[in-house]
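We modelled the chain as a single entity of 430 amino acids. Its sequence is:
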Amino acid sequence: MFVATIAMFFMRRWRFAAYTMCGYLLFISAGEGVVKNRIDSLFEGDSMHVKVRIVDFPRPVGAAVTILVEPVNDHRLPQRSRVSWYEPSVLPKLGETWELELRLRRPRGHSNPGAFRLEDWMFREGIHASGYVVPGKRNRLLQSAEQHTTSDFRQGFVEFVTANAGDSAAVIVAVGIGARHLLSRAQWDRYARTGTSHLMAISGLHIGLAASSAFALLTLVFGCLRLGGSHLDRATGFATMIAGAYALVSGFAVPSQRATLMLALAALALVLRRRRDSPRVIALVAVLVYVVDPLSIMRPGFLLSFGAVVVLLWYAQPAQYSVAASSPAGRLRNWLRQLSGIQFALLLGLLPLTTLYFGRIAFLSPLANLVAVPVFSLIVVPATLLALCLYRWQPFLGRLALDIADAGVSVIERFLGFIATAPFASFPIA
């Protein structure tokens, strides 16, 4: 098959089929790699005393905590394992190294149609084993997270927010660094019923705000320094790097990858004075994300993120020919009309995907997003990003920014709670 695919590249008539086959082979190869890297059957079910490093935020589940670990110089363990620890003596943290007694098995789960399938989820997330920590005195902390690393910075922000914010801490942590382990089931249900779950993912909204804020500040700084050359180009380059750093801190999920790559391509076109072709940019970014991680197309974030951009571009085409209003009231009216239209376009355009992934239709999502998106864009996200930048170097100013974000989230939570309880707010699909 590989030889036939290479041969088709030299025949113009079969070139499209060759690209399709390349994509298919990449996906098969990535999937086969996940299956091959699962825990060896020789060690399945045995108690193993191993050294592991925690690579994601532990998730409390009742009296237990679920952690994602990778081995430290131990060939018996696969690359990633998901284990449960019942009533740990000390709550583990991201980046820590532990000695644990684990009992693991290959991923498996129920295959009920229409229900959540654990094995499928573990496959697309690249998790090669599941199990639990055997209670005992052999489980001990060896090393805390190394200082001045991404894990240390993310863990520090979580501790800062939980210590200084109220009930909004879980949302602020999700908005700031993309960590959603603190969100309760009630909060998830409230955002799902109102069609605002996308606010909890680091996407184009967050990356764009980080880049635009950095660009405005750097343009002013470089303009005053008069270093020579185009200060706008210099500010564009540094703002793109800052946005990329923020995406890395946020966990670099698929929506973050898409937004960062699109921003980088747009910045490159701006610096080179080239015209931007949005459909080609989206297609190129989708191919890059797929080549790096072919299994990413199985995650809801891939189709929802790229689908939302396509819907927005489709909706924006006739809008560019609209007549601009001259009065402030007219401009406000046009802005509200466009924002409302965007929300209805997203509701209808993403309806098949949201129904497939979430099993419900949020009929009031345009109304909820009409209020929630501006508040998050103008208040919550900028204040959270400011707190993220200041919490270690200027804790007092970081707390002030955090208070602003807390107030904005509290208002939105009350509003969404009212919307979620309205009749026909959400219609489940059996």
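As a brief sanity check on the tokenised model: Residues 46 and 168 are 42 Å apart (CA to CA). The first strand starts at residue 47 and ends at 54.
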